[in-house]
Specification:
With about 100 residues, the chain is mostly helical. It has one domain (about 5-95). The chain contains 5 helices and no strands. It has helices at about 5-20, 35-60, 60-70, 75, 85-95. Helix 1 (about 5-20) runs antiparallel to helix 2.
Length: about 100
């Protein structure tokens, strides 16, 4: 995949935000007080949101549009092809 350097940094920040959100699943098993767990959860959510949106800004509109198409569940199970879909698939082959 030929992604510019800024795009790789942006994607890295978005992956980091997913890791931060996954860290929320570990909080109940930590030996912290209720207040500590609430503080930790709030901090992880805040850092996850900041890193995600910062990654979106750095990655750019074109990269975000391309990856948002991959995550659209309507397109996952679509059968058959129209001219527009064929053009999009050809464009995706060229971009990848």
């Amino acid at each position: 995949m030929n992604i510019p350097h800024a795009g790789k940094i942006g994607l890295g920040l978005m992956v980091l935000s997913c890791i931060l959100y996954a860290g929320l699943l570990l909080i109940p098993f930590m030996g912290l007080s209720i207040k500590g767990k609430a503080t930790m959860a709030g901090g992880l959510i805040l850092m996850g949101e900041v890193t995600f949106w910062l990654g979106c800004l750095i990655a750019g509109k074109e990269l975000m549009t391309r990856y948002r198409q991959y995550l659209n569940p309507v397109r996952w199970f679509r059968k058959g092809g129209t001219k527009t879909q064929e053009k999009e698939s050809n464009l995706q082959r060229v971009l990848l």
